[in-house]
Each structure stands twice: as structure tokens, then as C-alpha cells.
């Protein structure tokens, strides 16, 4: 037998009669509907590019490169959805990092794709774990769904730094001096966060752009932003 999905059948008049019989205490056998392997219902949704999910654990005794590993690479949307539904949300991973990057770009400053780039960064208060989880989820689905359109080639990936004193969600871009593309990406990023579903009022949303070289050379907790959205 081929691998087949099971979908409950649409009720017919006979099915309605069977339901009536069940209501009277008479059980009727279930009628399975098998989706053929070549059915349009089995359509695959390939992504525009391969994305890799990386994870940095919180083992501070290990070297940074030893803490970082690829969890999975995604080629299809349904594959990404199934995987994302089964991983821990960021708010439960204090001291760790999640990274979603185009394959084969590594989430490191010094690799060629990132060395001249920067990041659009949103700071999230430690008292809003709900915002951390919602914003990160919305951003990931926007990236794999190509929501950034023609500016997607300028994007390297996204980073979620989860820290007890406050967390950050970032988009890394290739060219820190391309203010036009980076601002367009930033405005889309802010719109995604502004439209995110919340049970409680969302936190303030201010997105800064910082180039990687300034971040590496910083002597205080913050660096000067090229612009703020």
C-alpha cells in the first residue's frame, strides 16, 4: 500500500442516515477516504530558497562554535510548518539563540555574506515573553513566505537572542550602506509586528539599524543606529 493521508468523507444522505442510526444506538462502520498519491490535495509548496534553522545552546563552558549547530534545513513550506509546530518557543530557551538563515549562509559576522552587513533590531522587554514568541513566529513565516518581495535577496537571515534581562529579534542584511533597501525591509518588518495578533496590547515597536562592524567594536551596551523606524 502507498503512503496515503486519511481525510474524513463529506457527509452524504447515506452518511446522514448512518448518523441517525448511531443516535439510536446502532453503530455503522466508518468509511475512509483515501487521497491518491497524485491528487492535487497532495501538492508540495517549494520555498524560493533553502532555509536553515540554527540553534545556539546556553552551555557557557563550551566554545561558541561548539554551541552552534544546524537543526534542520527546509525546502518546502509544509515541512517548515510541521517542524515549527514541534519546537520550543523562544521564551522557554533563556540564554540561547535561534537563527534562521538562507542556506549556506552561517549566522556569523565574519562570513563573506555578513561581513559588510548589519541588522535591523527590535529590543523586547523581559516582561513580555508573549511578544517574543509572537514576533519571532510572525517574522519566520514572513521570511519563508517571501513577504519581503524584491528585497529578499538583501536579507541573510534572522536572529533571536533570548536573554533574562531582555531579548532581541533581528534581520541581518548583506550591505549596511544600502539604506534604501534596509529601510524598506525595516518598514515591512515593523508592519508584520504591528499587525501581529495579541490578546493583550502589544509592546512599543522601535526598530534600529546597526552595522555589524560597529556592534563588534562597541564599548557600551548600545551602538549608534544608522536609522530608526
Automatic annotation (TrEMBL):
Any GO molecular function: translation initiation factor activity
Domain of life: Eukaryota
Region (Disordered): 1-29
Record Pfam families: IF4E
InterPro entries associated with the record: TIF_eIF4e-like (IPR023398), TIF_eIF_4E (IPR001040)
Keyword Protein biosynthesis: yes
One Gene Ontology term from the biological process aspect of the record: regulation of translation
Coiled-coil stretches: none
Any one cellular-component term (Gene Ontology): eukaryotic translation initiation factor 4F complex
UniProt keyword terms in alphabetical order: Initiation factor, Protein biosynthesis, RNA-binding, Translation regulation
Family: Belongs to the eukaryotic initiation factor 4E family.
Name of this chain's protein: EIF-4F 25 kDa subunit
Taxonomy of the source species: Eukaryota, Metazoa, Ecdysozoa, Nematoda, Chromadorea
